[in-house]
């Protein structure tokens, strides 16, 4: 979750010899299936969680920690809603894109005007989107999140294709294209074909160790936070959340961007945080594959999307893959160096169906190493950071705990790259997370105990998709 994709058919254009829309999987050792009654209980829990978090035209991630609408949360939520409440799935996406900015950016938060001022930090009064050119009438943040929305739209349509879903795609398609143009245009700060994130919150993995080095250069003092009241630590253990110093730097980065009214002009000359993120750009490439499939439904030309997808994958490999470590790393544009931390971000390019075989094999080796522990039989959940690293923290947010969305993305990537044995092991681990810890925001990477917010929407949603696609 950021304060502040898709199955194989949503990630490319594979043959139609698999009911999921992807290539037929080769034989592998399946993980032991859970009892049918147990799976039915999990499904009921997931549906109840999503129903409880529905807020008239969108789903809140959580009633306590996150009472507004979040961007990539809504994409993940729509994927699960497609299995049980398809009308709500489309409404989820339409509500989010109704708040799209004129330049194409999709804000990472759309604020609910019915909530009292000060009920969430940083709230609309802090972001001040109304002062920015091209901002929508609704109050929003000024930053974005990984563009997983095209994959979500395709998966929602594929779940139950109809004239109504085709109409929804026709409405969304130009807006999804505008989102891509914004990210591949104004955000190509490095000029090499990748989008730069301007805040750790844009990665979705807020306080990942991947951001420690770039964040260290951001001038801020923990005293900055005395002017504000954090709401997250009122609802979750402070030991599980980013530190006050991290938050002071988050505030400083937002202030830098906000004070220039969220302009992307000459970012390299003044903005304190600029990073090319593997997950963000893998999602950017996967979105083009999904848009090629959507284009075929709405009567547009899929060719340009396939061409852009190929260019993004090539740039991702060229810019962010390290042949020495055999994994992908963020590139800090301030220093033009790869960040050395080995995190789950490095595994995320597996969602790209056209990732070259050399990189697929290397990333699978990384995923199956002691750092992450992916296996056909997984004794422990998949962590978000290298288990062997000295800064591995099993309780603190993105610095070690297991999250359903990164697991789900990797699971989809494994299926797309013909590793049903590993996909089955990861799926059973995902089901075990919720069976042990409930629909929590994230989980202890050793015990699967629930951490963060309870009754978390994307955990419930992606659980539904995992159950349906098993």
Summary tags:
about 475 residues; mainly alpha; Glycosyltransferase; 3-stranded antiparallel beta sheet; two-stranded antiparallel sheet; 17 helices; 9 strands; about 45% helix; disordered N terminus; Glycoside_hydrolase_63; MGH1-like_GH; Mannosylglycerate hydrolase MGH1-like glycoside hydrolase domain-containing protein; hydrolase; glycosidase
Describe this structure as you would to a colleague:
This protein has 470 residues and is mainly alpha-helical. The protein has a domain at 8-24 and 63-368: Glycosyltransferase (Alpha/alpha barrel). 44% of the residues lie in helices and 4% in strands. It contains 17 helices and nine strands. It has helices spanning 8-11, 36-52, 71-84, 86-97, 124-127, 149-159, 163-185, 200-203, 212-216, 232-235, 244-259, 278-298, 303-320, 357-367, 404-416, 420-437, 457-469, and strands at 69-70, 109-110, 275-276, 321-322, 327-328, 331-332, 337-338, 442-443, 450-451. A three-stranded antiparallel sheet has the order 3-6-7. Helix 3 runs antiparallel to helix 4 and helix 3 (71-84) packs parallel to helix 6 (149-159). The longest helix is centred in the middle third of the chain and has 23 residues, at 163-185. The protein is globular, with a radius of gyration of 20 Å. Keywords: Glycosidase, Hydrolase. Pfam families: MGH1-like_GH. GO terms for molecular function: Glc3Man9GlcNAc2 oligosaccharide glucosidase activity. This is Mannosylglycerate hydrolase MGH1-like glycoside hydrolase domain-containing protein. Residues 66-459 form the Mannosylglycerate hydrolase MGH1-like glycoside hydrolase domain.
């Amino acid at each position: 979750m950021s304060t502040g994709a898709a199955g194989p058919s949503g990630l490319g254009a594979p043959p139609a010899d698999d009911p999921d829309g992807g290539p037929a999987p080769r034989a592998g050792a399946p993980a032991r299936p859970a009892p049918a009654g147990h799976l039915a209980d999990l499904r009921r829990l997931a549906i109840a969680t999503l129903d409880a978090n529905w807020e008239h035209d969108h789903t809140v991630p959580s009633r306590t920690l996150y009472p507004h609408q979040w961007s990539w949360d809504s994409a993940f939520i729509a994927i699960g809603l497609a299995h049980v409440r398809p009308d709500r799935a489309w409404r989820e996406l339409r509500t989010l894109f109704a708040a799209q900015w004129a330049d194409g950016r999709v804000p990472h938060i759309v604020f609910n005007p019915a909530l009292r001022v000060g009920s969430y930090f940083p709230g609309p009064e802090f972001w001040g989107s109304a002062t920015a050119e091209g901002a929508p009438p609704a109050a929003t943040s000024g930053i974005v999140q990984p563009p997983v929305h095209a994959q979500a739209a395709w998966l929602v349509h594929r779940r139950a294709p109809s004239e109504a879903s085709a109409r929804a795609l026709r409405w969304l398609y130009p807006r999804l294209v505008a989102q891509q143009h914004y990210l591949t245009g104004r955000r190509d700060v490095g000029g090499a074909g990748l989008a730069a994130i301007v805040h750790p919150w844009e990665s979705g993995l807020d306080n990942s160790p991947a951001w420690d080095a770039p964040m260290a250069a951001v001038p801020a003092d923990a005293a900055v936070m005395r002017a504000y009241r954090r709401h997250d630590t009122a609802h979750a253990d402070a030991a599980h959340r980013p530190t006050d110093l991290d938050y002071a730097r988050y505030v400083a980065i937002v202030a830098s961007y906000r004070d220039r009214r969220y302009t992307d002009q000459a970012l390299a000359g003044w903005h304190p945080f600029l990073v090319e993120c593997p997950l963000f750009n893998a999602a950017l490439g996967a979105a083009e594959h999904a848009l090629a499939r959507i284009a075929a439904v709405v009567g547009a030309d899929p060719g340009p999307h396939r061409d852009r997808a190929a260019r993004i994958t090539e740039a991702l490999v060229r810019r962010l893959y390290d042949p020495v470590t055999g994994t992908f790393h963020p590139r800090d544009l301030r220093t033009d160096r790869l960040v050395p931390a080995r995190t789950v971000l490095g595994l995320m390019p597996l969602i790209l169906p056209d990732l070259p075989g050399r990189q697929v094999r290397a990333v699978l080796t990384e995923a199956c190493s002691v750092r992450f522990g992916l296996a056909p039989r997984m004794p422990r959940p998949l962590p978000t950071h290298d288990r062997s690293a000295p800064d591995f923290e099993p309780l603190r947010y993105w610095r070690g705990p297991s999250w359903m969305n990164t697991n789900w993305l990797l699971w989809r990537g494994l299926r797309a790259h013909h590793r049903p044995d590993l996909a089955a092991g990861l799926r059973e681990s995902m089901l075990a997370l919720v069976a042990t810890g409930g629909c929590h925001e994230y989980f202890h990477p050793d015990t699967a105990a629930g951490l963060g917010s309870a009754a978390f929407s994307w955990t419930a949603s992606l659980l539904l998709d995992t159950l349906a696609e098993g």
